[in-house]
């Protein structure tokens, strides 16, 4: 359900309208930070619904309301901070009966290791367009 800010605009998950498509009713939702990542991943993996929350601080309780009753995979960008912030958000999903899991693309690597390997703050779209391993 949309909500409006003081300027009269409302914010929602990028691609949120796809939740209402009949063919998508049983699909799991892949939730990424970047709109670009949602678009590219949707082309590679159409068996999922790809939505974006539009920034690390933009995933609000209001935005996740539309995910009630859905299976969600939350895919934060590759940094310790992003993973920590999204890990804390799990309880907000669970309070709303949203089945959520995190796909941690850092695989436990520190920011230092991610920086040295060129993956710090990368996302799944970056992985798809390169030959490098994480």
Task: Provide an overview of this structure.
- The chain is of the alpha/beta class and about 130 residues long.
- The protein has one domain: 3-Layer(aba) Sandwich (Dna Topoisomerase Vi A Subunit, Chain: A, domain 2).
- Helix content is about 30%, strand content about 15%.
- The chain has five helices and four strands.
- Strands 2-1-3-4 form a four-stranded parallel beta sheet.
- Helix 1 links the parallel strand 1 and strand 2.
- The protein is globular.
- The model has no long low-confidence stretch (mean pLDDT about 90).
- This is Toprim domain-containing protein.
- Pfam families: DUF6371 (PF19898).
- It comes from Olleya marilimosa.
- InterPro entries: DUF6371.
Entry summary:
By secondary structure, the chain is an alpha/beta fold. The protein is built from 5 helices and 4 strands, in the order βαβαβαβαα.
Order of helices and strands: EHEHEHEHH
Structural class: alpha/beta
CATH class: Alpha Beta
* Global shape: globular
Kindly report the spatial arrangement of strands forming the biggest sheet.
Answer: 2-1-3-4
CATH architecture: 3-Layer(aba) Sandwich
Q: How many strands appear in the DSSP assignment?
A: 4
Strand content: 5-15%
Q: Helical residue percent?
A: 25-40%
Average pLDDT metric: 92
Distance between the termini: 37 Å
Low-confidence stretches: none
For the sheet with most strands, the description reads: 4 strands, parallel
At the fold tier of CATH, the topology name is: Dna Topoisomerase Vi A Subunit, Chain: A, domain 2
| Count of discrete structural domains | 1
User: How would you name the oligomeric state of the polypeptide chains in this document?
Assistant: single chain
Radius of gyration: 15 Å
Tally of separate helices: 5
